[in-house]
Amino acid sequence: MGDKTKVQVSKLKPGRYIIIDGEPCRIVNITVSSPGKHGSAKARIEAVGIFDGKVRSIVKPTSAEVDVPIIDKRVGQVIAITPDTVQIMDMETYELYDVPIETGVEDEVKDQLKEGITVEYWETLGRIQIKKVRGE
Length: 136
What we know:
There is one protein chain. The protein is 6% helix and 57% strand. The protein has helices at 101-104, 107-110, and strands at 4-8, 17-20, 23-33, 42-49, 55-61, 65-69, 72-81, 85-90, 96-100, 118-124, 127-135. A five-stranded antiparallel sheet has the order 9-8-7-10-11.
Protein backbone atom coordinates (compact mmCIF):
# COMPACT_ATOMS: atom_id res chain seq x y z
CA MET A 1 0.00 0.00 0.00
CA GLY A 2 1.78 3.15 1.16
CA ASP A 3 -0.45 5.35 -0.94
CA LYS A 4 -0.08 9.06 -0.33
CA THR A 5 -0.40 12.31 -2.18
CA LYS A 6 0.92 15.86 -1.82
CA VAL A 7 -1.29 18.77 -0.73
CA GLN A 8 -0.42 22.41 -0.12
CA VAL A 9 -0.54 23.39 3.57
CA SER A 10 -2.93 26.29 2.90
CA LYS A 11 -5.54 23.78 1.61
CA LEU A 12 -5.59 21.68 4.81
CA LYS A 13 -8.50 21.88 7.26
CA PRO A 14 -9.28 20.35 10.67
CA GLY A 15 -10.73 16.86 10.28
CA ARG A 16 -8.57 16.02 7.28
CA TYR A 17 -5.55 13.72 7.41
CA ILE A 18 -1.80 14.33 7.16
CA ILE A 19 1.38 12.30 7.55
CA ILE A 20 3.64 13.53 10.37
CA ASP A 21 6.84 11.60 11.15
CA GLY A 22 5.67 8.74 8.91
CA GLU A 23 2.45 8.33 10.91
CA PRO A 24 -1.02 9.06 9.46
CA CYS A 25 -2.78 11.64 11.67
CA ARG A 26 -6.14 13.44 11.82
CA ILE A 27 -5.77 17.23 11.93
CA VAL A 28 -7.24 18.74 15.10
CA ASN A 29 -6.21 22.39 14.80
CA ILE A 30 -4.45 24.70 12.36
CA THR A 31 -3.23 28.17 13.29
CA VAL A 32 -1.73 30.50 10.71
CA SER A 33 0.64 33.29 11.67
CA SER A 34 0.61 36.38 9.52
CA PRO A 35 3.71 37.03 7.46
CA GLY A 36 6.30 39.56 8.50
CA LYS A 37 7.70 42.27 6.30
CA HIS A 38 9.81 39.85 4.24
CA GLY A 39 8.62 36.45 5.43
CA SER A 40 5.92 34.06 4.42
CA ALA A 41 2.93 32.96 6.48
CA LYS A 42 3.50 29.88 8.63
CA ALA A 43 0.95 27.28 9.68
CA ARG A 44 1.13 25.28 12.90
CA ILE A 45 -0.67 21.97 12.43
CA GLU A 46 -1.72 19.90 15.44
CA ALA A 47 -2.84 16.34 14.73
CA VAL A 48 -3.59 13.05 16.49
CA GLY A 49 -2.20 9.74 15.21
CA ILE A 50 -4.78 7.36 13.76
CA PHE A 51 -3.06 4.23 15.05
CA ASP A 52 -1.33 5.36 18.25
CA GLY A 53 -3.40 8.36 19.43
CA LYS A 54 -0.29 10.51 20.02
CA VAL A 55 -0.55 14.27 19.54
CA ARG A 56 1.92 15.60 16.98
CA SER A 57 2.52 19.07 15.63
CA ILE A 58 4.53 20.62 12.83
CA VAL A 59 5.17 24.16 11.59
CA LYS A 60 5.39 24.70 7.83
CA PRO A 61 5.10 27.64 5.43
CA THR A 62 1.60 27.80 3.95
CA SER A 63 3.07 27.47 0.47
CA ALA A 64 4.83 24.17 1.32
CA GLU A 65 3.47 20.78 0.31
CA VAL A 66 2.95 17.95 2.79
CA ASP A 67 2.13 14.26 2.43
CA VAL A 68 -1.50 13.25 2.90
CA PRO A 69 -2.40 9.55 3.27
CA ILE A 70 -4.93 7.93 0.98
CA ILE A 71 -7.26 6.06 3.32
CA ASP A 72 -9.08 3.08 1.87
CA LYS A 73 -12.30 2.47 3.84
CA ARG A 74 -13.47 -1.10 3.38
CA VAL A 75 -15.85 -3.69 4.82
CA GLY A 76 -14.76 -7.07 6.12
CA GLN A 77 -15.97 -10.02 8.15
CA VAL A 78 -14.33 -11.24 11.35
CA ILE A 79 -13.17 -14.81 10.72
CA ALA A 80 -11.25 -15.60 13.91
CA ILE A 81 -10.22 -13.91 17.15
CA THR A 82 -7.07 -14.89 19.05
CA PRO A 83 -5.78 -13.26 22.25
CA ASP A 84 -3.61 -10.79 20.33
CA THR A 85 -4.99 -10.66 16.75
CA VAL A 86 -8.24 -10.48 14.82
CA GLN A 87 -8.43 -12.14 11.42
CA ILE A 88 -10.73 -10.36 8.97
CA MET A 89 -11.71 -11.17 5.39
CA ASP A 90 -12.37 -8.38 2.91
CA MET A 91 -15.92 -8.66 1.55
CA GLU A 92 -14.94 -7.63 -2.00
CA THR A 93 -11.56 -9.25 -2.62
CA TYR A 94 -11.82 -12.10 -0.05
CA GLU A 95 -8.28 -11.35 1.16
CA LEU A 96 -7.44 -12.31 4.74
CA TYR A 97 -5.75 -9.87 7.12
CA ASP A 98 -4.36 -10.40 10.61
CA VAL A 99 -4.96 -7.23 12.62
CA PRO A 100 -3.20 -6.78 15.98
CA ILE A 101 -5.74 -6.04 18.72
CA GLU A 102 -3.48 -3.53 20.53
CA THR A 103 -2.93 -1.12 17.63
CA GLY A 104 -5.40 -2.21 14.98
CA VAL A 105 -8.73 -2.07 16.80
CA GLU A 106 -10.52 1.04 18.12
CA ASP A 107 -11.10 0.88 21.90
CA GLU A 108 -14.89 1.14 21.67
CA VAL A 109 -14.98 -1.74 19.17
CA LYS A 110 -12.85 -4.24 21.14
CA ASP A 111 -15.65 -5.54 23.37
CA GLN A 112 -18.11 -5.85 20.43
CA LEU A 113 -15.90 -8.12 18.31
CA LYS A 114 -17.02 -11.68 17.75
CA GLU A 115 -16.63 -14.16 14.94
CA GLY A 116 -18.95 -13.70 11.97
CA ILE A 117 -19.77 -9.99 12.38
CA THR A 118 -19.20 -7.38 9.69
CA VAL A 119 -16.79 -4.53 10.44
CA GLU A 120 -15.56 -1.39 8.72
CA TYR A 121 -11.79 -1.12 8.53
CA TRP A 122 -9.38 1.47 7.22
CA GLU A 123 -6.24 0.60 5.30
CA THR A 124 -3.51 3.20 4.93
CA LEU A 125 0.27 3.12 4.53
CA GLY A 126 0.20 -0.68 4.65
CA ARG A 127 -1.54 -0.79 8.04
CA ILE A 128 -5.09 -1.75 8.96
CA GLN A 129 -7.36 -0.56 11.75
CA ILE A 130 -10.87 -1.80 12.53
CA LYS A 131 -12.98 1.33 13.05
CA LYS A 132 -16.53 0.16 13.74
CA VAL A 133 -18.90 -2.77 13.83
CA ARG A 134 -21.43 -2.83 11.00
CA GLY A 135 -23.60 -5.72 12.22
CA GLU A 136 -24.17 -9.45 11.96
